[in-house]
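Researcher: Structure for this, please.
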Amino acid sequence: MKNFKIDKQNWKSISIESISYIRNEAKDYLDYTLNESDKITNRAYSIVLMLFAILSTITGYTFIEILNSDSKGIIILNSILIITLGFIIFQFGILVFPRTIMAKGRIPRNLALPQFLNNPKLNNEEIHLSFIIQDVEVLQEKIDFNLLKNESRQNRLKNNLIAMAIIFPLYLVIAFFTTI
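Model: Predicted structure, token format:
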């Protein structure tokens, strides 16, 4: 991730309107990255709930089969599926819970830097301009971080969905031949 810095050689010549426009666009794009992160989380959460219902059903069916002890093949197959589903649910859970993103805004102690806030060499307009420039740089850092995390999470989601798409048909084929 490349660090973005605005050239500070002639920073006082940057118009407040231009840099404010850039900041507003950056805020919009940061919102987009946060919304994408929420979508990934919601998809994964929905799939976890569905898989948990499937896991509960298969577990219940397996216990009934154990009590009837009719077919050991389906019991072994279901046990393998239960373990596999548990692992997949864990993988989806990783997408849902320890979610690291950079959110909107900043903590005041990180924003109120004395070299800008109490600098007698700068007038009020220059102080305001310095804060906007600093904000644009921080917004770019947050956007880059969120894009990287979202891409990683999206790839994990895709890989987990592919694993599910392989496991369930495979299970059905093996279960069909096990019960014949």
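Researcher: Any notable elements?
Model: The chain has five helices and no strands. The first helix runs from residue 16 to 68.
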